[in-house]
glutathione transferase (Paraburkholderia phenazinium), 213 residues
Amino acid sequence: MLKIHHLGHSQSERIVWLCEELGVPYELEKYTRDSVTRLSPPELKALHPLGAAPLVEVDGMLLAESAAIVEFILARYGHGRLQHAPDHADFASYLYWFHFANGNLQPVMLRTMTVGRCGLAPDHPVQTSSLDRLEKVLALVETRLAQNDYLAGNEFTAADIMSVFSLTTMRLFHPLDLTPYPNILAYLQRIGARPAYQRAMAKGDPDLTPMLT
């Protein structure tokens, strides 16, 4: 059985959610962020040098990196679900948006959060370039969701599981008003209606009301 090491209010929610969507049995070991630093506790650092989450134990192996874990679980337990085969019309879109999550969306959110804490003037070039990049990335997602119900097309896939954290829970660390992006907000309502998402959030972060608005 999989053992998921889940850090509260973190991207490891992706793994809990994926297992709920697929009906994969798992053991959930939960960790709480340090109340001052908001970083991982020593217990996670004892498992992995970076103290990162998620971590998954399976067959005597310890896997890290959320995208790698998602791909592993899909390959072993997915049986073709939540992903598109190479001959699917949306295969290229699936690959693009799956990797967009950690290649563009999450990094720009993290950069904006970090820059925002540096006390720079609003017109500082680093500040303005960071916000400009964020707006471009969100506009791209908004346009995509104006054309499709989900990121890889009109079917829910692991590309959505990879992306939702940055649009929801990550906003705990850097408030972001999504009002200018009605298609993203409508998308988050569709996500929030999924029973597997509701179960995952209730199990992994019972103290958190999912940030779907």
Notes: The beta strands are 2-7, 26-31, 55-58, 61-64. Helices lie at 13-22, 42-47, 66-78, 91-116, 125-147, 158-167, 182-192, 195-204. The chain has two domains: 2-82+198-204, 91-194.
